[in-house]
Structures are given as C-alpha cells and as structure tokens.
C-alpha cells in the first residue's frame, strides 16, 4: 500500500508539473508583433503616420490599397477633406473633375461591409447585446462586431480606423481613404470597407487643418492641405527605416483583467460607475514602438 501511495504521489507531482508547463506554454503573450508587410509608412509634410492593414473584413479593398501604395499612387496626394470630430480623407479630389493620376490598380471595388466567418475561436465577445451590434468585442485584436445568427463580422469605426471612401453607390470605392479622427461614427459600421487602423502618428492626423462643415470639410486654400510626400509598405523599406510595432494582445491575462475591471471595478473616483457595459472603442489595445 505504501509503494502504491508513493507511486500515486509521484505521478500526481509529474502530472501537476506537466499541467503547469502546459499552462505556461499556452499562456497568451502580453504583446503581439506586427508584420512589416502589413504596415504602411506614410510620410506627410507634418510628420509620419503608420497604418496597419488587415484583410479581416475587406480583403479586396485592403489589397487594392496595398497595391496603390506599392505603385506610388499616393505620392503627392493630399488630405483634402478634414472634418473636425469625424474623419480625415485623402486621395484624388480632382478625379471626379476629370483630372486623374495614372494607375494600374484603380478600379471600383465591390462592397465588403461584413465578412461571413465560420471561425469560432477568433472573436472575443465583450458586450452582448451591444448598443449598435448584436455583439461587440475583438476580432484578432481589432475592435469588431458580430451577428451570431448570420455569422457576419465587421470592424468598428473606432478612432484611428482606416476605411475606403465611396459615393452613394456601395460598389464605388476606388482610391480614396479616410481615417476616423473623432468620436466613433458607428453609423458607418457595416456601410464602409474598413481596411485597418493607425498604429503610429494619430497626433499628426489630429493636427491636420480642418475644413468648414458647410463646404463638406474641404480644406481651403489648397496650400493648407496636408500633403502625402510618400507611402510605402514596411517590408520594402530598409531595416533602419522600419519601426518595431507591438500591439497588446486582447487575449492576454492582463488585457482581460483590464476589461473585467472596467466592467466591475471602476475604482473609488467614479460616483456613478455605470451599468457594467463596456465600449470596446474606448478600450483599444495599447501599442508599443521600439
């Protein structure tokens, strides 16, 4: 009996060590690196802006934007439409007037306002039901919404989100894009092709001259528009020109604790702590550079 007890005890120690190792080995890292191939380094006359592209929602639009960047299409274009509290838009303002820049990739893109996903593990539900979606949370670290009944998922128009602009025709996105600079315009969710987010240089975007709302946000005179000097995919740059960008992992213990605290432990400062709901646009993953 003693030998059997000792054997069981030994096995239990081995099992506990294995379980501890497995837990450690499968622990989510606090930060995740961003591949240079998904980064767009945009140099403007007032500073650098870096965009992280994703094909989660709008793969055709993301690919077109990447091709246009690689082609050099955005060189010397401007952020010509900047509306305070809303968006900063760039691209060919003169295109509709018949003045266009030659491109091998200009074409209208079919609407990609949601993406149907059969993947079960990629979405982290944070709020259900949510105000402007059946559920909101994080989709591979991007703030997103989903409808479990249709399996549709989409990226949210949080501050810093990047999407393709269009006219009234849902299939009219081509070369113009915008960056959300104000309070999240969530009415645009599921109405636009979202292709990424700004991961560096939001202070530059926020510093852009605004246009008058009465004139559609067009910045006048033209000399006041922020100019894009160049745009390039990170993997095409020299190592010395690249930035090491890491984004907080929404599946890490630290981030999950942050969300839980936001829901249930607001701290002593708030007199009215709310009802336990969380806006994922406010709790976007933090970014480290260097």
Q: How would you explain this protein's 3D organization?
A:
With 290 residues, the protein is an alpha+beta fold. It is built from four helices and 16 strands. The protein has helices at 2-25, 59-71, 202-206, 253-264; strands at 31-33, 39-44, 47-53, 78-82, 87-91, 115-116, 123-127, 135-139, 142-147, 152-155, 161-164, 177-180, 193-200, 226-233, 245-248, 287-289. The chain has an eight-stranded antiparallel beta barrel with strand order 2-3-13-11-12-5-4-14. The chain starts with a helix and ends with a strand.
Secondary structure: helix percent: 10-25%
Q: In angstroms, what is the radius of gyration?
A: 23 Å
Structural class: alpha+beta
Could you give the count of β-strands?
Answer: 16
Tell me about the biggest sheet? 8 strands, antiparallel, barrel
What amount of the residues lies in strands? 25-35%
Would you tell me the overall average pLDDT?
A: 89
**Element string (H = helix, E = strand):** HEEEHEEEEEEEEEEHEEHE
Overall geometry: globular
**Separation of the first and last Cα atoms:** 60 Å
What is the tally of helical segments? 4
The main sheet orders its strands as 2-3-13-11-12-5-4-14
Ranges with pLDDT <50 over ≥5 residues? 1-25
């Amino acid at each position: 009996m003693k030998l059997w007890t000792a054997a069981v005890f030994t096995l239990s120690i081995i099992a506990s060590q294995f379980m501890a190792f497995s837990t450690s080995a499968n622990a989510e890292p606090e930060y995740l690196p961003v591949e240079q191939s998904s980064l767009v380094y945009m140099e403007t006359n007032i500073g650098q802006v870096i965009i992280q592209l994703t094909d989660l929602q709008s793969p055709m639009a993301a690919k077109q934007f990447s091709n246009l960047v690689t082609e050099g299409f955005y060189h010397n274009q401007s952020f010509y439409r900047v509306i305070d509290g809303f968006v900063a838009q760039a691209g060919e303002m003169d295109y509709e007037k018949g003045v266009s820049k030659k491109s091998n990739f200009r074409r209208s893109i079919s609407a990609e306002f949601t993406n149907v996903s059969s993947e079960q593990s990629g979405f982290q539900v944070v709020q259900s039901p949510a105000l402007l979606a059946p559920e909101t949370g994080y989709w591979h670290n991007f703030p997103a919404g989903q409808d479990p009944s249709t399996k549709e998922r989409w990226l949210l128009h949080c501050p810093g989100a990047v999407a393709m602009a269009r006219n009234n025709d849902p299939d009219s996105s081509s070369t113009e894009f915008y960056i959300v600079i104000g309070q999240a315009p969530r009415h645009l969710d599921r109405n636009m092709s979202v292709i990424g987010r700004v991961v560096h240089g939001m202070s530059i975007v926020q510093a852009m001259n605004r246009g008058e709302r009465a004139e559609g946000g067009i910045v006048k005179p033209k000399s006041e528009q922020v100019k894009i000097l160049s745009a390039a995919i990170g993997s095409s740059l020299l190592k010395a020109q690249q930035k090491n960008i890491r984004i907080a992992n929404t599946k890490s213990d630290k981030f999950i604790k942050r969300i839980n605290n936001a829901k249930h432990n607001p701290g002593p400062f708030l007199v009215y702590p709310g009802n336990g709901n969380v806006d994922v646009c406010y709790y976007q993953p933090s970014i480290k550079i260097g």
